[in-house]
Each structure stands twice: as C-alpha cells, then as structure tokens.
Amino acid sequence: MQKRRAECRTLDPGAPQADLQVMQAIISVLSQLAWGVTVGGLTAAATVAGQAVLVGGGVAGCGYYVWRRRRNRAKPSDPS
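and the corresponding structure tokens:
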C-alpha cells in the first residue's frame, strides 16, 4: 500500500514541485534584470542623444550669433 502525501504549502526540497518553484523564481529574477538593463540602456541612449542635440544647438546658435554680428559690422551704413 502506497503512502499518500499530504498537501503542504511550504517549500519542501524533496517535492517535485520545489524544482519548478525555484526555476520560476530564477526566471522571474532574470526577467526583471533583463528589463532593467533594457530600460536603462534606452534611457542612457536618449540622454546622450538629447545632450548632443542641446550641445549642437548651442554651438550652432553661438556661431550664428557671431556670424550675424560680423556681417552687420562689415556692411557699410546706408546714408539714405
């Protein structure tokens, strides 16, 4: 006669379900790490792109301002 196991809610290392629970926990942690790395990478890329646009705009704006001042100084004044 076979003994019947009572249902147990605790994690019993000898139970066949324990391996499944451990594997699910490991996969869950790895999934969270993967999402964290992905979101972190996208955030870093967006930050770098935004900073590049701001720096490029600042350099271009300063260059335009200096060019405009030099152009206006070089023009002879209109006597009319």
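(Above: one complete record from the training split.) The chain has a mean pLDDT of 83.
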